[in-house]
């Protein structure tokens, strides 16, 4: 027989549950507010004491209501926070199992895919998914099997909330580690998201790819273009993370392909391809097309990266020389339309000249006597400012002549 105290506790629980069942949206919102204030941080035993050993009955009602209203953003944030109290409760593993068995994972993922919902609601959904993933490999696999990586990377790429993107990064990191069945899927999804992600998401994705590289063990060739694409970002923090990832990738089989494309970026298409809009429209104030600017940014970033990678490894430096990196750097130095290209190419070129004696003769022939003297006696950040347009044209012509000479010699 139950004691009078236990009977009273059960009666209070039944009254509370009946109040919830009969309440409309506003009343339920008030109940959720009170629940969060009173129970945040409680353990499983404490929640059971609060609900007279019937906490699961309330969790079942919360999950059922979530299934009914998640598409309409009705009290969604507080509803998800209330469920989080159960799933995060110490010793509350059974609550997590109950939520998952009621289809909770699928609902949380669908919330991420609904464009009309608020970012703060989606962030709460990500936090709940993190609690589920933290429960072990079985739950990580469940999230992935439910197309979770696709939902997460899409939200990751398009979110306007830096905090939400950081939460997604942590969750993707969790799904990619200790989850061998799906780690490659997470990795490739991050690569695929790079071209269409926001700058902050690109930065975080690059960081995560660098962390995951050792776990995955193999760098696929599809990585080359997306990483080099974001290398040309106007956001320096994105460029920095791309360079850090490229340093990691130098230890993998994809290195030759990356180096070849990096050297190619030093020589953008001819200026004839950079047709300005104002030349094809009657509006004299129209801006030029962005393509040449973006390609020059990529050229400067490639010149900078090449210098960093060469200084990291003599072996990489020698491979770059074989790929005619010196010719490309000289072309970039002659790009009077983009000072950043000239500066970074000059710094990298100085390293090759002073490290490899045989490079000096090549550069001397390409630059000509006057420019070469400026190059040798001035600091690399400023010597190119003494170059005029005629000298720049001659420099590019000299490189073309040297390349033809090499081709004939090789033949």
Automatic annotation (TrEMBL):
Superkingdom of origin organism: Eukaryota
A Pfam family: DUF5578
InterPro entries, sorted: ARM-like, ARM-type_fold, DUF5578
PANTHER family listed in its UniProt record: ARMADILLO-LIKE HELICAL DOMAIN CONTAINING PROTEIN 1
Name the record gives this protein: ARMD1 protein
Lineage start: Eukaryota, Metazoa, Chordata, Craniata, Vertebrata
GN (gene name): Armh1
């Amino acid at each position: 027989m139950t004691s009078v105290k236990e009977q009273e506790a059960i009666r209070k629980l039944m009254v509370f549950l009946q109040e919830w069942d009969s309440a409309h949206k506003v009343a339920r919102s008030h109940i959720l507010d009170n629940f969060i204030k009173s129970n945040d941080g409680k353990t499983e035993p404490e929640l059971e004491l609060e609900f007279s050993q019937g906490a699961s009955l309330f969790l079942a009602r919360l999950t059922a209501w979530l299934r009914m209203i998640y598409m309409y953003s009705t009290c969604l944030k507080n509803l998800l926070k209330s469920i989080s109290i159960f799933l995060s409760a110490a010793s509350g593993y059974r609550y997590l199992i109950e939520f998952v068995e009621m289809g909770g994972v699928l609902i949380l993922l669908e919330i991420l895919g609904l464009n009309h919902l608020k970012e703060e609601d989606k962030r709460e959904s990500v936090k709940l998914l993190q609690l589920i993933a933290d429960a072990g490999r079985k739950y990580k696999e469940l999230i992935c099997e439910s197309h979770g990586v696709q939902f997460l990377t899409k939200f990751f790429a398009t979110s306007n909330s830096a905090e939400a993107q950081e939460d997604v990064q942590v969750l993707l990191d969790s799904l990619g580690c200790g989850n061998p069945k799906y780690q490659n899927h997470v990795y490739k999804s991050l690569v695929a998201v790079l071209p269409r992600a926001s700058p902050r998401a690109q930065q975080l994705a690059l960081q995560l790819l660098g962390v995951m590289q050792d776990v995955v063990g193999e760098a696929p060739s599809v990585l080359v273009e997306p990483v080099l694409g974001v290398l040309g970002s106007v956001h320096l923090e994105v460029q920095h993370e791309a360079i850090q990832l490229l340093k990691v990738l130098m230890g993998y089989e994809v290195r030759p392909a990356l180096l070849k494309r990096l050297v190619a970026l030093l020589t953008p298409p001819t200026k004839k391809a950079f047709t300005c809009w104002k030349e094809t429209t009657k509006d004299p104030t129209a801006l030029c097309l962005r393509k040449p600017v973006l390609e020059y940014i990529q050229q400067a970033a490639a010149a900078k990266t090449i210098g960093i990678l060469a200084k990291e490894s003599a072996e990489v430096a020698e491979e770059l020389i074989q790929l005619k990196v010196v010719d490309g750097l000289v072309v970039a130095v002659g790009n009077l339309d983009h000072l950043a290209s000239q500066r970074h190419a000059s710094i990298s070129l100085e390293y090759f000249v002073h490290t490899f004696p045989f490079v000096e003769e090549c550069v001397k022939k390409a630059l000509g006597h006057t420019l070469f003297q400026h190059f040798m006696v001035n600091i690399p950040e400023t010597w190119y400012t003494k170059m005029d347009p005629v000298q720049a044209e001659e420099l590019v012509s000299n490189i073309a002549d040297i390349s033809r000479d090499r081709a004939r010699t090789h033949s």
